[in-house]
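Before the break, one more example. Copy the sequence into your notebook; we will annotate it together after we see the structure.
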Amino acid sequence: MGLWEWIAPRRPYRTSKKTRWLSNLGMVFIDTLAVSLVFPGTAVYVASLNESSSGGLLIQGGWPYWLSIPIGIMFLDFVIYVQPAMFHAFPSLWRLHMMHHTDLDFDTTTGVRFHPLEILLSMAIKIAAVFVLGIAPLALFSSRFSSMPPACSITATCVCRSRSTGRCFFCGYAGNAPGASFGDHPRNQQ
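Here is what the structure looks like once it is written out:
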């Protein structure tokens, strides 16, 4: 998406794309490093521990393993969906989340620009969800990788998308309309 956006930008940029991308992707590096240092493999460990000790609501409820995986994926995706609302609703969390909204331009990298403390808190919330529900490791893996591409494509601003529907002219993928990132970005930032 980033390459496509660079080749066919939908709007002029206010700041240098190179500087912004180095800054935003540098934050991704710092965020990844922070999570790796504070929570190395913790979510997978908690999921495996739940499985081996019969912990968590899905396991204790006697749900079949094959059914617990899609339920786990849906629950984790719901947690990922609710988190932005939480970070907007509480002033102390908003102070962390504001970093995502201070990007002067709106493109693919805006979707991954977060404060390291927000990322750590987000990971702690996900680990708690895995622990309480007893989500299978496979569901955790599936959810993690199924939610990553939309995080970047939500904010894509390439010309291949219809301005009114957000649908790609080539493949028909709708995703979120550009600027519809959960409705949380001001009009002048889109």
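Residues 77 and 143 are 7 Å apart (CA to CA). DSSP finds nine helices and no strands in the chain. Try to locate both features in your own notes.
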